[in-house]
Amino acid sequence: MTLALILGCAGPVLSPEEAAFFREVQPWGFILFKRNIETPGQVRALTAALRETVGRADAPILIDQEGGRVQRMTRPHWQAYPSGRAYLRAGGPEGGPVLAGLGARLMAHDLAEVGINVDCAPVLDVPVPGAHDVIGDRAYGTDPAVVAAFGRAVAEGLMAGGVLPVMKHMPGHGRAGADSHHALPVVEASLDELDAHDFRPFRALADLPMAMSAHVVFRALDPENPATTSATIIREVVRGRIGFAGLLMTDDLSMNALSGTHRERAAAAFRAGCDIGLHCNGVRAEMEDVVASAPVLAGEALRRAEGALARLTPAAPAFDPAEARARLDAGLATAA
């Protein structure tokens, strides 16, 4: 029995209490943050310990490794990577995706070496003037077609390296006037505006295996509920207008954009149609609340989860990370 949850742990080593909890709960997967990252050997040991608790060698272990401001594995043990926007500045709309795909392939190499098989990227949000900079340079550009092209290159680079991509934040965080980690953003744009701009990159990449929801209220779609807990948005936009048939996971259920107890937040997300709940901070009391509302992974959600993992293939053995890094550095340096 597997619960429809992805959970975090508190530190770089799994405590006996955490191991016992995960063994009992049986979450579908886990997510790592900087607090969990020290050295390559330590991360390999942690990912192995997490998988041992659920008894599944292919259990998803996620990380947010975008580059720029959002990368959990960094120096001195791993290379630093540019932000999404830096690739556009370096190579423009045509050459930039090549560089971004190369960067993603290198990141996948880093992740796969330590047992991480899912990266919460690419960011497909399209910022507009006046929006909060929580997305900012994490976005590949401000043109939906350009964002889609970069997103495709990044997703393919990750998958070529044996890592599944998670596109975020569906159906779009680019217009948000607040950081959903701290407050609930409310977007006033019309459905026509959203459909022509915000939804376009997600629609173009709707064949990808996994996506993360946005904790954003879209007044034109559902005046009360953020996308994560809106059955209307998930049914009519995510599954309808965008046409996404893959696994939909929530953004972090502990973020302040959501209201109510953690149990209520999780229940609302599952009721709305999210397949998997994500809880990141490793706080035991919060995780127990989320567990109390989480269903067993079954039915369509199970089919989508199995379909996502079926897209996971081993990295090609011929890849030379040193040569790829040299090409990436040369592309970035030439533009600079």
Characteristic key phrases:
alpha/beta; 336 residues; 14% strand; nine-stranded parallel β-sheet; 13 strands; two-stranded antiparallel sheet
Walk me through the topology.
Elements (H helix, E strand, L loop, with lengths): L2 E6 L7 H10 L1 E6 L7 H15 L6 E3 L1 E3 L2 E2 L12 H30 L4 E2 L24 H17 L3 E2 L1 E4 L15 E2 L3 H8 L1 H5 L5 E4 L3 E2 L12 H11 L5 E6 L9 H11 L3 E4 L4 H10 L5 H12 L10 H15 L1
Parallel strand pairs: 1-2, 1-13, 2-3, 3-6, 6-7, 8-10, 9-11, 10-12, 12-13
Antiparallel strand pairs: 4-5
Helix pairs in contact: 1-2, 3-4, 3-11, 8-9
Q: Which class best fits the helix and strand makeup?
A: alpha/beta
Unreliable spans: none
Strand order within the widest sheet?
A: 7-6-3-2-1-13-12-10-8
From the 3D coordinates, which CATH architecture would you assign? Alpha-Beta Barrel
Globular, elongated, flat, extended or rod-shaped: what is the shape? Answer: globular
In CATH terms, the superfamily is Glycoside hydrolase, family 3, N-terminal domain
Classify the beta-strand content into a percent band. Answer: 5-15%
**Number of helical stretches of at least 4 residues:** 11
Secondary-structure element string: EHEHEEEHEHEEEHHEEHEHEHHH
What fold name goes in the CATH topology slot? TIM Barrel
Tell me the count of domains.
1
Q: Using DSSP, what is the number of strands?
A: 13
Rg, nearest Å? 19 Å
Overall mean pLDDT stands at 97
State the CATH class: Alpha Beta
- Helix % is 40-55%
